[in-house]
Amino acid sequence: MIDPRRLRVLRALADHGTVTAAAAALHLTPSAVSQQLAALESEAGHPLLVRKGRRVSLTPAGSLLVEHAHVVAAELERAQATLDGLASGSAGRVAVAAFASAITQVVAPALAALKKRSIELSVRDAEGHESVRLLLDGEIDVAITEEHRATERVTRFPLYTEPFDVLLPPGHAVSGPVDLATLADEDWVVTLPGNPLRDVVEMACAQAGFTPRIRHNSDDFRAIEALVAAGAGVALAPRNAVGGVAVRRAVAGVAPMRRVVAAVRRGSEDHPLIKAVLEQLRR
């Protein structure tokens, strides 16, 4: 029989790429992870890993077993939710990760309402791509993220949609809704590589016929807005993410959109506490 606890180790390795990183995510030693993987290979009767220096890749058998591991994990989440449902589920703590504007717009109001029901939220500020990783590693229960960052390993619940606006320095010549093509010769302030919102900006500029000349980077939209206000360049930012330091203009035509969802590990959506939190976040 394959030990399902070792499947969790294999999933962590597939997610993080090295034994050391997988061990850190699981709060184990690298030696313990290596031992668990060796035992899993013995149980499976197939080589599961190919070692290339410090990194490890999966064999075809390893990749196949990871897919089954996702299914097993979801069923175990459902089993836990069912057992917890035997209790009242009326009190407890749920860990939530969200980016700053979602905390302001959605999480904080939900926290106040849930507190009256003896449900506490533990809130962590994290960008959408980071919150999904935390969710899959089991460090949080709910991730507030962009729709396209979710994977088949999570269940998504739509929360809200917001357009991107153009940020301009005070006194900029452009007025009214902005055709992005008119900003082709400007310097740009964008999020860091790996942040999904950078992809949105680069795609919007590409559709307008140019590649943005990126001069400055930050994942904090308050910092991006401050740089724009100081004359460092122009930017695109989700409407709820900025305050009013820079000049804000709508995008002419069809604006890029950010679709925000609450994501939970597949199978955990029926846990009574998580279900209550999801209902309040949507409300």
Kindly describe this structure.
The chain has 283 residues and is α/β, with parallel strands linked by helices. 42% of the residues lie in helices and 24% in strands. Strands 3, 4, 5, 6, 9, 10 and 11 form a seven-stranded mixed beta sheet that branches. It has a two-stranded antiparallel sheet with strand order 1-2. A hairpin with a 2-residue loop joins strand 1 and strand 2. Helix 2 crosses helix 3. The longest helix is centred in the N-terminal third of the chain and has 27 residues. It is globular and about 70 Å long. It starts with a helix and ends with a helix. 35% of the residues are buried.
List the helices and strands and how they pair.
Blueprint (H helix, E strand, L loop, with lengths): L3 H13 L2 H8 L3 H15 L4 E4 L2 E4 L1 H27 L5 E7 L1 H16 L3 E7 L2 H9 L5 E5 L7 E15 L18 E4 L5 H12 L5 E5 L3 H9 L5 E4 L8 E4 L6 E9 L6 H11 L1
Parallel strand pairs: 3-4, 3-5, 7-8
Antiparallel strand pairs: 1-2, 5-11, 6-9, 6-10, 6-11
Radius of gyration: 22 Å
Order of H and E elements: HHHEEHEHEHEEEHEHEEEH
**Which structural class best describes the helix and strand composition?**
alpha/beta
Low-confidence sequence ranges: none
Whole-number mean pLDDT: 89
General shape: globular
Count the beta strands.
Answer: 11
Main sheet?
Answer: 7 strands, mixed
Helix content: 40-55%
What is the count of helical runs? Answer: 9
Terminal CA distance reads: 45 Å
Descriptive labels:
alpha/beta; single chain; 9 helices; 283 residues; seven-stranded mixed β-sheet; two-stranded antiparallel sheet; 42% helix
Concise account of the structure shown:
42% of the residues lie in helices and 24% in strands.
